[in-house]
Amino acid sequence: MSDNTAVANELKDKGNLELKNNRYDDAIKYYTEAIALVQSAIYYSNRAQAHIKSENYGLAIADATKAIEIDPAYLKAYYRRAVAESAILEYKKSLADVKKVLARAPKDPSCLKLHQDLTKVLKTIAFENAIAVNEKQSPIAELDFDSMIIEAGYKGPELQIQVDKATKAVSTDLDLKYVGEMVELFKEGGKIPKKHAFAIVCVANQIFKQEKSLVEIGLKRSKTAASGELQLEGCETITICGDTHGQFYDVLNIFSTFGDTGPNHTYLFNGDFVDRGSWSCEVALLFYCFKILYPQNFYMNRGNHETNDMNQVYGFADECKAKYSHKLFLCFSESFNALPYATLIGQEYLVMHGGLFSDDNIKVDDIRKIDRLKNKQPPKQGIEMELLWTDPQPEEGRSASKRGIGMQFGPDVTAKFCEQNDLKAIIRSHEVRMGGYELEHNGKLITVFSAPNYCDSQHNLGAVINLKTNSDGEYDLDFKTFKEVPHPNIGPMAYTRNMGF
């Protein structure tokens, strides 16, 4: 064994230990150092696994492909490439790689499970395509509240539901007392009646549909508000939160730590409130209740996980089915289509889930012009996709996405966009940050992530941004971090189609 090989194996072993302990960045560093010494299929394949755990699926595919080039017989590389391909919804490519493994290892349990999951999701997609109905058909419009009954034995809060015969608009007597009792019911492992859940989604959807694709809000200050901006009279704080991913107990901790939403405290949740975590229904219903109670003080941007293809794999669709019904998921899906894509605060801070664009000619006004109700799901390319999917990079310019979807943009792209649109900064989410938040691109771009100890494994802090006005009438940003809180003994991904990730 050469000296290089011996050192590389030691680095690989260190990487394996870091991977086992969920320290994925450190694992990637050690594997990279090993690869610099020896071009080994094992090292590339192991780094692919670390990238999978970091959700860098594009990089994982590249590493697994390199491992296969070095050793076409190395089955782990095919499996890991299949896992990464399934994570970015490339199901047919994933299935092809799985079949290559099973041709030589027909009893491999991981591959058999992935094959089963892929076959199931492909059948589901084929079935949905076969029964695809007119774009104008609405699951929410088909709801018949008169025919719905409250489940036997239900002892939770009551909710009166009315439907206007002329307009078909739905209304309820939802109040804070109901929400408080609903939360306690959820904490005990209970559910509200399906009829209540349908009504909450329906009423929230009516409110979302009245909002613009770009919501424009601001705190009252000496400066004259721009046309189209809603100044929040009496509001002292706007709290911006990143991904929460079904971590219901951490969401409750956000409100208990930083204050309840209401006329003097506005919240903006910046997408990805469902999937992965095992209480996505509870988080979504709570957020929708707050939207109904405080439509001008509670806002939600769409994330890449508020989409059908992600929900089918990462848990929300199956969670809705398990806890309520598949039809409730269809109604949630319709309401996700009405969520705004971005929020502009005081004409100075643009908040979206993913990031900036592949075209320098895109302006804030182009977000205003998005007809989000035109499509049932976001297009696979263009401004809507990029608002949901793109990520920053430290290098100048643009490059292919480490995720395998969208692209990455550098500090020059951010600086130019902010200058052209007279913005102080971009605020986005979409990625774990170990400290809960990070100032990037010379302070022109801020990432905030609000799911602490993401998926019970990342050991990251959560964070929020409190935006207030100072004595000069300017906005100040105050970054607050928090740790995870205990939750019932149900792990993340309980409703996820495993797919190996």
From TrEMBL:
Its EC number is 3.1.3.16. Its cofactor is Mn(2+); Mg(2+). Keywords: Hydrolase, Manganese, Metal-binding, Nucleus, Protein phosphatase, Repeat, TPR repeat. The active site is at H305 (proton donor/acceptor). It holds the Pfam family Metallophos. It catalyses: O-phospho-L-seryl-[protein] + H2O = L-seryl-[protein] + phosphate; O-phospho-L-threonyl-[protein] + H2O = L-threonyl-[protein] + phosphate. PANTHER family: SERINE/THREONINE-PROTEIN PHOSPHATASE 5-RELATED, SERINE_THREONINE-PROTEIN PHOSPHATASE 5. One of its GO terms (molecular function) is metal ion binding. It comes from Kuraishia capsulata CBS 1993. This is Serine/threonine-protein phosphatase. It comes from the Eukaryota. GO terms for cellular component: cytoplasm; nucleus. CDD domains: MPP_PP5_C.
